[in-house]
Structure formats: C-alpha cells, structure tokens
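Sample intake sheet
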Amino acid sequence: MIVHYFNPKSGLIALTPEDVDDLWFLRRFIKVDDLISSETSRVVKNDNQYARPNKGERIKVSIVLKVKDLKLNGELERLRISGIIIEASNEAIPKGAHHTLTITQGQRFSLKKEEFNINEIQLLQTLHNKDTRFIVVAMDRREAGIGVVRGTHLQIYATIKSGCGGKRYGEVIDINEFYNRVEEVIKSIYNEGQKVFIVGPGMIKKAFANHIKDSELKKVVKVIEGIDLAGEDGIYIALHSPNLRKAIENTKIARIMNLLDEVMRRIKIGDNRVSFTFNDTYNASKIGAIEALIVSSKILKTGVNEEDLMKMLDMVESYNGKSYLVDNSTDIGIQVSKLGGAVALLRFPIG
C-alpha cells in the first residue's frame, strides 16, 4: 500500500492499493459513513432533442461518496463501494444520487473519517511495517524464469529463452546477450529496496550475478544454492527451498509457510490445538482461542458470508491474535483452500 498523505487530526488519508492484501486491508479499514473521493465513470443522459432515448454518454468524473456498503468480489481483486454522491466535478452528476466505486490495484483515492480509532491506527501501522518484496530468477543455459513475490502473491513476469536447445552444449549461443535480456527484464520490474534471488542448476546463476552491470542491482542480488530447476517450475520450487526461506525469513510468505508447517505437524501428532474449516475457526475466534489465523483468498467462493468473515478477523485481533491472507498463486494458498479456506493455530484445544 502506498500512503501518500495521512493526517489523523483532520481524519484525512490518501492511499493507493498495490496488491490483493491491500484490498483485503481496505475492506476492513473503510467504514459506513466514511467519505471517499476518487475518479470514476458515470453515464450522463443527453438532453439533446435528437439523442436516442434512454441513451447517455459515459464520462470520467471525480466524486465524493458517502459510504453505505462495501463488498469484495470472490477473487478479492476488486472492492466495490456503494454510497451517495456528496460532491461531483461535473454539474451533470446530481448530488444525492447513488453510485458504486470499484477500487482496484493501482487506483489512488482519498478517505475522510470523523476520527481514526485505535484499531484503525493499528491496522495502518501494519502498512508501514510491510514486508520487503522480492524477485526470484530461476535460470540455466536454456531459459530464465522471472517472478515477483508481493506479500503472498506470486506473479510470473517472463520466461526468457537463450536459444540453446536441450543438452546440446556444443551449440554456440551469445550468453552475454542472454544475460543482458534477463537483466533488462529485472530492471523493468525492480523497485528500490527489493532483494533479487538467483537460483538454478550449475554455475550459470553465479556467472549471471557477476555479469550484472547495474550497480544498484548488484547490491541486492543474492545467489541461492540447492534449487536444480530453471524457468517457471524453478520459481515454484524455490519458494519451498530451506535456503531461500532462510534468506526471506522476515517476509510474510515465510512466516505463513512456517505457520502451515506447524499446522501440519500438529495434525500429524494429534495435537488438538488446531482448527480448520470456517465454522470451526469462527467458533474458536469467539472465545479467544486463536493465536494465528490463515485465510484463503478463495474463501468467499465457498459460500462464506463476507460480514461473518470480517467479524472473525476482528475477533481474532481483539484477542491479540494474528491473521493472514494467502492467495492461490502459490500452492501455499491452495493448501489452505484444501483445508477449508480457514486454518488456525490455537492457544488451547476446544471441542
């Protein structure tokens, strides 16, 4: 999340969500009767006598909306905010009309609250402590897969082919040209402060790390041993590598992997301090039993009521528990989905 401006005394904040986790955060942060300002589009009817009836022109307009309802879509990729228009930049937009804003990743907006309560300020503090994102490059002589991890979301950006086929190592390729292409893609997605991890079989990863010309990239590149696949498959395997997990131990995805390891350990030995499925986890949250909760981004697709989900998250945190969202771009999220969409480590056994 990018916080452009924050003044708690005036109740004003300007934000830009960057990923699914941010939209999840906003669903809990924005409340009914808050005022939200953003650009949107709306159909304005044409009063011209020659205009076709019931037809209008869709125009871009800036509005201030008084929030009345919020909904996430099933994939948690969009936040729909419904309310009443208080102000509009175009006089053709009537005040008091109902409108729905759709907030997506990369869309800037401003929010006005009467005041920020303690829970909201604590939620905001989690933004400033947000984990460093990182880039994974899985490469050999034939190809390089490049992916970015943001929170728990993995995005595969590219798979670059060198032109060398199979095991025909006698084939002559311009390895420097291959390295240059890989470096250019990394530079195009790199943000200041990100780590770049190079994995893959053989010595090619070290040769590429030495080849990098960009001085800023050189500072953040780290070669990780022990992953013997390249390309997209190599990226997925790398996320489960003990060597990479040690290097990213302070990131959100590493913490969740450790929590899931503990869940599976407790299940294996018959330790009852664990719950899965939404209903069991919801009941555990009501009595303060949850120490850490992991929720799949697919959970709303299972028929879980969104308001009940938000209540569960609030109850967990009111008892000083931790909650995490995972999406299904990696098999970590898929594993949580298979366990019913909500998994928790408990402070004490229940039931």
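Comment: Residues 2-128 form a domain with the SH3 type barrels. fold (CATH 2.30.30.870). The mean pLDDT is 86.
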